[in-house]
Amino acid sequence: MKRLIYLAWKNLFDGPSLAPRIRSSLLAVALGLVPFVVVLHVSDGMIEAITRRFLETTTYHFQAFAYAPDLSMEEGVERLAAEGFLAVPEIQGMGLLVNGVRREGVTIRAVPSWWWEKDEGLRSSLSIEKGRFDLSSPRHMVVGVEVARTLGISVGDKVKLLVLRSFGGGTILPRIATFEVTGVTSTGYQDVDKLWVYVPFEWGDRVFDRRSSRAFLGIKVDDPFHDMEALRSRIAACLGAGWVVLSWKDLGRAQFLSFSTSRALLLAIMGLLVLIAALSISSSLVMLVLERAEEIAMLKSIGVPPRLVSRAYLWTGMLVGMAGSLAGMACGLLISLYINELFAFLEHVVNLWLRLAAGLRGGSYEPVRILSSDFYVEHIPVHPSPFVLWLIFVGASLIAFLASWGPARYVLRISPVEVLRREG
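The structure assignment produced for this chain is given below.
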């Protein structure tokens, strides 16, 4: 074993011409793994952040729909509360929000005034940009930050909300109500809350026609990621007949499948870089074997077992892969942990240059935001998994082992007699 390690170490650090090529292969493996690790952690963090925002602010953990006309949402809330579940009655509809001459189509969410105080998950995912989440009055309204920006709304403004209500015989009449804006909220991801406005549940229950709106119980549990089927069955049994219970996976299946597919494609592309780095290990070992054919022949001629010499070159490739993997994973993990600070620094530098350029030409500039809430979450949570990092290390080392197999096998075919005769 000592001789094996000595020969592998000698291949890495001895020789004026090709040992540097081996070390460059180590660098290639490291550089190939850096983007892989960064993309893995950043994509996981973004998917986690977006998923949590959807769960806590939009889809809830479960939704229960009453398909029997005599069922009471209030009774459903009480039954679920008795079993330790938080149930939020909600009615969703469409309307037109008007502020002066500006108007915008919005998604109206009629929710109870106690939702903000009782739902810790909501408070962790929905930030109050201005004012407060106050629906204590029938004429209070809370709006999303994008709606406020589009219509020029601020806390304390009076706005008009127009909804269409259908009556018997196909008659549809508009209804206009005036609200006072008490708060402006943001989830940090505009695709979630771009058109939201919140109004008191009592107003929505009185105004919305159930045929043109969506009424349900939004249900929160302690852990929305485990034992989903068991929880669904328990909730359904608690509510009794006449209710349909859907989990967040059912409600957002297409959205979350899209996230997973995009992540897999990105990782596959980054994985190609690791494979290319493995090919550089193979080519470097081939050149190393050809350069040291005479040395290999001498070792065989003095009685060193051919398989020991072959394994030494196999170990050389393995050491390159393992060292490159550790270096690449360390750099990638460091970048991932400070990805938000890195983006903030890049934003600062770019905007500084834009401001200087605008000052020189006497114009204005539009600040650049890398993590704009129009497309991304504003803060990426990163939670490294030791098990996943271990799998990456093992996988990269295995790829390096396979890339070294061919050159190591070629060592066995080198004949001392032919090499010495050719050199002589």
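Interim note for the steering committee: The chain has two domains: 2-48+256-423, 89-217. Residues 19-59 form the longest helix (41 residues).
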